[in-house]
Design goal:
disordered N terminus, 31% strand, 13 strands, mainly beta
Length: 267
């Protein structure tokens, strides 16, 4: 019996030694793939079966070990249910988030001069606080980040990377802003992208979908085997009432750290 107990204790310790570091590593520089598509997805705020390939890149809570849960999230695990899709072709990168959530809080509309409005999109400086409402934030780095190296996060809240926010106003107008722009694309404007954001209150879903020209991402190289960094956060909340944000990889919330982004390989 003593030998059996000793064996079981040793086996448990070995499992713990390997399990704990693996879980921690999943939230920094996780390696993932975006697959090439021959038929471009439609950017309409609806994700049809097979539109981005056979499966989403990941889902929550199934892949929760890849996500960071911190003081910005007071929601229970059961409150989060979403899928993330990513695909590419030679001209564009395509991404979609499908959030299955009871709550969606649109950012209040800002009064503006009529000349500031363009097809429902707004001046990028007006909605920098969208993170306090329902939204998606994401970061692209020009190349692949590496753990322990500082290549892209060159200041507290900026650096050589693209950071963008997507949100829907309370009046159902889609908006997007850029908080940080890569050094190779200082004049990049996210309003040049195709985007659709649709809230379906009956189905309790919010879908964020974008089609971005590669030339507007700041990514240095594209094609089979090319790599870049990517991290994102999703929010389904009114922050002052009850924070509800969760992030994939440890790069967006609490402190900016583009160098902790996942390493995406195009295949």
């Amino acid at each position: 019996m003593k030998k059996l107990l000793a064996f079981l204790l040793a086996a448990t310790m070995i499992v713990a030694m390997f399990a704990i570091p693996a879980a921690a590593e999943d939230t920094v520089n996780y390696e993932e793939e975006f697959k090439f598509v021959k038929k471009a997805p439609s950017v309409d705020g609806k994700v049809a079966k097979g539109e981005y390939g056979t499966l989403p890149v990941h889902t929550y809570p199934e892949d929760k070990e890849q996500f960071v849960d911190n003081e910005h999230n007071q929601y229970a695990e059961s409150d989060w249910d979403f899928e993330f899709y990513g695909a590419w072709d030679k001209d564009y990168i395509y991404m979609a988030w499908v959030l299955n959530t009871e709550t969606h809080v649109g950012i209040p509309e800002i009064d503006q001069e009529e000349g500031d409005k363009a097809d429902g999109l707004f001046n990028e400086e007006d909605y920098g606080y969208m993170w306090m409402y329902s939204c998606v934030q994401f970061i692209f780095t020009p190349g692949a980040p590496a753990k322990g190296e500082t290549a892209y996060q060159t200041s507290e809240y900026g650096g050589d990377y693209l950071e963008v926010g997507l949100a829907l106003t309370a009046e159902n107008n889609p908006i997007r802003i850029a908080w940080s722009k890569p050094l190779n694309s200082p004049n990049l404007d996210p309003n040049d992208w195709d985007a659709a954001i649709v809230r379906d209150d009956a189905a309790k879903t919010t879908t964020y979908e974008v089609r971005i020209p590669w030339s507007k991402t700041g990514v240095d190289e594209i094609g089979n085997g090319a790599q870049f960094g990517f991290t994102y956060a999703v929010a389904a909340q009114e922050y002052k009432t009850k924070p509800g944000l969760i992030e994939w990889q440890n790069g967006v919330l609490t402190a900016k750290d583009a160098d902790s982004a996942a390493v995406i390989t195009l295949t």
